[in-house]
Amino acid sequence: MAFDRFVYFDGPAPSKEDLGKALEDYLGAGALAIKWERDRFFAQLHGNSLNPFRRLVDPPPYQEPDERWIEVVVRVDYVDVLTRHQDEFTNNIARGFARLVERFWKGRFEAEGGD
């Protein structure tokens, strides 16, 4: 399941170049790699997804270990910061970046998919 965090703008969205710089500086050493493909940035983060309740319940919640990453989709008048099957840590990093974009570029934040 994907969680989308949309930031809408009354005018044009920030440029790909400016968003890329902000994403690099936001993630810093927390990013293993950031690459641009088609219409989005893919930012791979350190570690694998973990369920924070895995040691608190029996049997533990099932979760495939997966690499951590976020996607930042750039459109004409909005940005979508999304995650797919990620853990709380990664989802909060994505939400934080969307909120940063909202604040700096004076956008309007909306979340879909449970975030």
Total number of beta strands: 6
Number of domains: 1
What is the overall silhouette?
A: globular
* Poorly predicted segments: none
Strand content: 35-45%
Question: What do these coordinates show?
Answer:
The protein is built from 2 helices and 6 strands; from the N terminus they run βαββββαβ. The N and C termini lie close together (11 Å). A 6-stranded antiparallel β-sheet has the order 2-3-4-5-1-6, with helices on one face. Helices cover 26% and strands 37% of the residues. A hairpin with a 2-residue loop joins strand 2 and strand 3 (40-48). The protein has helices at 16-27, 88-105, and strands spanning 2-8, 31-37, 40-48, 67-74, 78-84, 108-112. The protein has a single domain (2-112), classed as TATA-Binding Protein (2-Layer Sandwich), CATH 3.30.310. The protein is α+β, with helices and mostly antiparallel strands and 115 residues long.
